[in-house]
Amino acid sequence: MTVDITSVTARLAGVPTDAVTLSPIDYDWGSPATAGLWRVSAAGQDGSETTYFVKLLRHPRLWPSLAHVPEGPLRDFFLTSFPWRFELHMALSGIADVLPAGMRMPVLHHHEAFDEDHVGLWWEFVDERRGPWTIDELAHAATLLGRLAARRRVGAPVNDRLPEACRLPPGAALRYLAEGRVLHGAGADLADDDLWSHPVLAEAIRSTGETGLRDDLRAHLPRVLEVLAELDALPQTYAHGDASIQNILICHGEDDLVVIDWGFGSPLAVGFDLGQLLVGSMHAGLTPAADIARIDPAIFEGYLWGLSVEGYDVDPAAVRFGYLGSLFARSLFTALPTVELRGPVSESLRRTVRERVVLTRAMLDLTGPAVRQQLARVGA
Fold this sequence. Notes:
The chain is an alpha+beta fold. The protein is 46% helix and 13% strand. The protein has a five-stranded antiparallel beta sheet. The protein contains 14 helices and ten strands. Helix 4 (135-151) packs antiparallel against helix 10 and helix 9 runs antiparallel to helix 12 (316-330).
């Protein structure tokens, strides 16, 4: 198989191949569907330059980390069901027409199937502003996410145009992730004495005073399935699905937020997107975990306002549990960089592990009381 991005770009821009320049862009190597990202420039004879953001999608059977998915039914289901072309399908579905004012999609100039396992996407190259966001910017994004959630609530006519991959039961995508990566993967990590005695993790736990973190996570892990059941009973909407600041971009020279990389395609509990908006920048090391207490109320109130602007009347308590319960089930148990801890040690790893220990505790302190209260209420 030959993925010739240069030739396709030359054809698209109407220039010779030697006028095309590819510059690789660093990305999350753990993403099953992403095989590569490039900034691709095509120089015209008149001195003009056309620049694309090119993304190569791949079938998950080619994912280098597939070995970490246990062989058997779990892996088989993953390989047959993972929607690796979902980003393309969402763009072609007309989702851009559903976005509220203040959000937009980048222009998809071209897509090309190289073979049955690879598809290239030629997107508009946007001038993203790097770095952390202010709390006001996060609250504004939360308002727009609330408006989007209200527009895409289950039963709304706009959902009729969604791709086939979205025709799933409520919470199906989150349940799949939680039953695999969380209950199986994180459960195995919590049981791994060698991992928890790793010098880097042990030092991070000592320096932060979090000697009880492992036991607290073990105590809460069995509640994940109950939390998923409670989330399924809440009002449902087709959220963005991965609404971190890595996927909702502030760009130089424009006011609109640019939305990329749509996540889970199944309906999700209202409030779901707030979890990634809260911790996405913390995962990237852009925002300290200690800021959770300041960011949480701002984005929650912003999201509620967005729902109300669109006339979607939802009990704030339901939104709160949709937000915190989803964060609990999706992100709490997987924040520690356990894969990296099995690799070479560096000062960067030491900093990351320490911050992730702090982040894990902050997420547990935020979500744990809400989970215990909700489960006690329904069990009474």
